[in-house]
Amino acid sequence: MARKISFDAPSEETPPLETEQRRAPPHPARPLLGIDSPIKQSSALGAISQSLGDISERVKRAEQIEQKLIEGQTVVELDPSFVDDSFVPDRMEATQEQNAAFREMIREHGQSVPILVRPKPKQPDRFEVAFGHRRLRAARELGIKVRAVVRNLTDEQLVVAQGQENSGRTDLTFIERARFAARLEDRKFSRETIMAALNVDKAALSRLIAIATRVPAVLIEAIGPAPGSGRVRWQDLTELLDEGENRVRAQEIVTAASFVELDTDRRFEALYDGLRIREMRIRSETWSAEDGTRAARVMRSGKKLTLTFDDRVAPEFGDFIRERLQVLYDEYKAGGGRPT
Q1: Is residue 254 helix, strand or coil?
Q2: What's this model's pTM, rounded to 2 decimal places?
């Protein structure tokens, strides 16, 4: 299994790990004082500020509270307009119905679990989400503040927290995990970091990335998360796409008006069935020797021709042909690419 990068994600029961303290600039922004800051005070923090006698006391108090935020020991309320999504998306767009249901749950019961954010690199007045994207979206749509834990995180720590939080809840579908893995590799993260983020071993990671890179991104986006389809189904679809003109056919299927009206699982099935039916129409014929032995089957699909040998009919005939492929190829080339 993958070797995890040591990194504890915060929860309400277990306080987050402390991070290295940062030196404050000569004239730092004071989020809790409302000076050049995106963070508006919550009622509790507002009461603290009002009880202080003068500005020096307020500055001292703000420094103490801000240090706790940096160490990830305090849950704060942030204006969601100052919080950006992760630089590596993992989720695919949910349906309007799913978003509405989640938003109403937050409206009725509140946000029980805080999100994890970091101060955004090179933009100290903004934040970036490690996990909690749906909670952030709901807060934006409801026009309320979002409860968050603030920690200093490297890029590697952020994606590991992001991936492990979703993996722990088995919340991402197979293709979302595959696409997330491929995007991390595109950004030059090490395989070790990606394995830690997704909690998979090297072989499983290779399969995830292979499928995400072999299936065109436009098809993945058209299908959506497809929670009902796991690795085996996506692998089968990948192999179908490699046959003949199926990639062109796939593009025709996903752009049809009837396809767009389907939900995500039915989209996957529509594309899979459409390509599979076409595959079953492959021209196939049996080659028989002069003695009547049906020694091979010839199948042509688009620009591909496949020979199949049955050892039960002609034992080791396939191996015999394979060992002479170079001779046959030389004869082919000698004839100018035509049978001699």
Answers
A1: helix
A2: 0.54
